[in-house]
Amino acid sequence: MTGLLLLSLLPALASARFGVAGGRVDVTPDFDYAPVAFAVQAINDKFLRDGDTAPRQLAEIVSAQSQVVAGQKLYLTLRLTGAELDDYCKVDVWFRAWLNNTDRLIITSGPTCSKTRSRRELLGGISNPNYLKNSLDKEVFDALNFAVCAINDASNDLFFSKLGDTSGVTYTQQVTSGMTYRFYKVPLLTSSCRKQANSCQETDLSTCEVSDNARTTVCTLTVQSQPWLTPAYTLSENNCKKMRFPNKGM
């Protein structure tokens, strides 16, 4: 009886999480979400069938849309690393969470892969938000660390600020003259490291402890990356607000 009740509630639960049946909505799935992991495996299987044995790793969910169709259908565009050039792959996955057999996850289209971004992205389209915790892209972290140091070097504080818990940080990226990264909900906490003659770029903030009664600031940051320039990064937006309650760092 309980099982039948749960089955009867599944459509309502799916609609609440993934949107109205039939319509597509933008979503931000985690890297370890079952349909995403299944899509990555399908992409690796495709390359293996084609004689390419280099394993690919998911670096970015470029875009993701969800549609409620007797379960969930995910329309994914993924960027994968592992080959000489990154692969951009489109794949659609049908997910029926209540099944326990091979029909639980089915590829309905793709994977189709290329070595370049889509025309929309090349023309400046903004990617869907991604969680920083899911990113394996060194460029993303370099851009964020530059922004943190730019804030430190521009402030009159006696102590450096460092990144707090970044599990809630999201970011987008956009092809402009280079690449523009926008980071949201970036927590900065006052550390115990006093500013000396060295700049922030010359200081390893990971070794700095969060000070007692640390002041917490949450920022929206925009960083322009142009690798052919020196410096390669520019902090073009810095919108920070102090929080009322401290937020313990990592």
From TrEMBL:
PROSITE patterns: CYSTATIN. Keywords: Protease inhibitor, Signal, Thiol protease inhibitor. GO terms for molecular function: cysteine-type endopeptidase inhibitor activity. Residues 19-111, 121-241 form the Cystatin domain. Residues 1-16 form the signal peptide. This is Cystatin domain-containing protein. The keyword Chloroplast does not apply. Belongs to the cystatin family. The keyword Cell division does not apply. SUPFAM superfamilies: Cystatin/monellin. GO terms for cellular component: cytoplasm; extracellular space; vesicle.
